[in-house]
Design a protein that fits this description.
Radius of gyration: 20 Å
Structural class: alpha+beta
Largest sheet: 3 strands, antiparallel
Strand order of the largest sheet: 1-3-2
Low-confidence stretches: 1-5
Distance between the termini: 67 Å
Order of helices and strands: HEHHEEHEHEEEEHHH
Length: 190
Amino acid sequence: MRSPSPGSPKSDAESAVGNADRVIVAIAAGHHGVVSRAQLLARGVARSTIKRRLRAGLLRTLYRGVYLVGQQTPARGTWELAALLACGDGNVVSHLSAARLQQLLPYPANPRPIDVTFPGRQTARRAGIRIHCVESLNSRDTRTLHGIRVTTPARTLLDLATVLPPHLLERAIAEAQVRRLVRKNDLIDQ
């Protein structure tokens, strides 16, 4: 099959490729360069197109069914948002991962595993994600930071109390107070 000459209409295949690329870029632009297989399929990108992009290195797997677009280096927040996409709706970044995003603790070069809290249910393990299950998670304990659902600073400090040694917990509390992310009353209410 001949390709169309310049200025002639594009073939259906070329048009589909261009549309798929536009969809991928549009989703990734608002999500730290990350897209999920479910998002792509819902927007009409064919499974075969996703496979071709993966083989060509245009999509890079971060978690099962979650991809980084292009060859870029993941930025702050990329792994965290990818973990939420891998885990499904209703979850929130928590514990050490939330503390790092909120700059209560230093952000490491390799932020994995990512801490994700699941309210009200047990769930399967996922490589690279540390799962925490709680009976419920009040909406007042969550917020959105740079497009990522995270626990509030006060809830994050409460979660940190279960995983950090006392001297590091004190450091995180002091950082949160200096940055005016929490007040003493916020911590007492938790």
